[in-house]
Design brief:
It contains no helices and eleven strands. With about 120 residues, it is an all-beta fold.
Amino acid sequence: QVQLQESGGGSVQSGGSLKLSCAASGDTRCMAWLRQAPGKEREVVADMRMDGSSTYTDSVKGRFTISRGPGILYLQMNSLKLEDTAMYYCAVGPPGSTMPYDFHFWGQGTQVTVSS
């Protein structure tokens, strides 16, 4: 059984930084951060495999960094923009997961709000 619990969201001004954390247990071979803004579809922001390889959606490349340790997943978010405002979710999927529907286990989410 996979259990996920996010933390670290909050409100920040444009250009600021936040670090999200996700405490994880169970089979966590492929983990990811996803987000969903009001009126928009859920998207994979960044994912990381057990071999340490990672991918990012184009809009966050160079600003966000995903990392993981035993039982925990992080997302360092720098140079935050208004359009980064969303509910952020930690998720786990089988190896090869790349699309939101591939990830079968989700946390409750943590809100990130960026203001001008």
